[in-house]
Amino acid sequence: MVQGLNEADFGGWEGLTFDEVLLKDKEKAQEYLRNPSGFRFPGGEGLLQLNERVLRAMDLILKKHLNPSNETVLVVSHGGSNRVILGKALNLSLEDQFRLRQDNGCINVVDFFEETTVVSLINYTPGVAILNPGKCVKSCEKCAKEKCYSF
Fold first, then answer.
1. What's the pLDDT score for residue 132?
2. Residue ranges per domain, the chain?
3. Which residue, 12, 20, 27, 110, is the most exposed by fewest CB within 10 angstroms?
4. Positions of the chain with pLDDT under 70
5. What is the pLDDT of residue 2?
6. Are 83 and 98 a contacting pair, CB within 8 Å?
7. What is the rounded distance in angstroms from the CA atom of residue 22 to the CA atom of residue 16?
């Protein structure tokens, strides 16, 4: 098991929808929207710290399994961490990484080679119908009525 692939530490925003964050601290929420990559969640970490932590963990995995054996490795992680891994594989900016959708239980397939990376599957959720895109994955009461995005 490799440490570092856990979800972002949202600090005081943990478990809140973005609407709840807006009510709780509108100024900080707007700061996050203006500069997500430079923002640090109150009492938590920032996307830059998440990115560095996840990439360190992936480097350990790749050093162990890429050469010379080219083993198949299963990485079980969280949405934010998955976005960092996919972002690295696709050469995306930090801001663009977080435009990738990652539903609960989704499968991504990424092949890492010495010289390149190939992404062949993103956000595959077998047997799960997307009935309400944008709906909160926590199924909170508010989500039954409208779109919601939770931290």
1. 52
2. 11-125
3. 27
4. 128-151
5. 87
6. yes
7. 10
Point out which residues pair with 150 in neighbouring strands: 17
Inter-residue contact 134 to 109 (CB < 8 Å):
no
CATH topology of domain 11-125: Rossmann fold (3.40.50)
Residue located via tokens 């077998």: 126
Confidence at residue 128, expressed as pLDDT on a 0 to 100 scale: 63
pLDDT value at residue 114: 85
**Three-state SS letters, the chain:** CCCCCCCCCCHHHCCCEHHHHHHHCHHHHHHHHHCHHHCECCCCCEHHHHHHHHHHHHHHHHHHHCCCCCCCCCCCCCHHHHHHHHHHHHCCCHHHHCCCCCCCCCEEEEEECCCCEEEEEEEECCCCCCCCCCCCCCCCHHHHCCCCCEC
Separation of first and last alpha carbons in the chain: 25
pTM of the full predicted structure?
A: 0.79
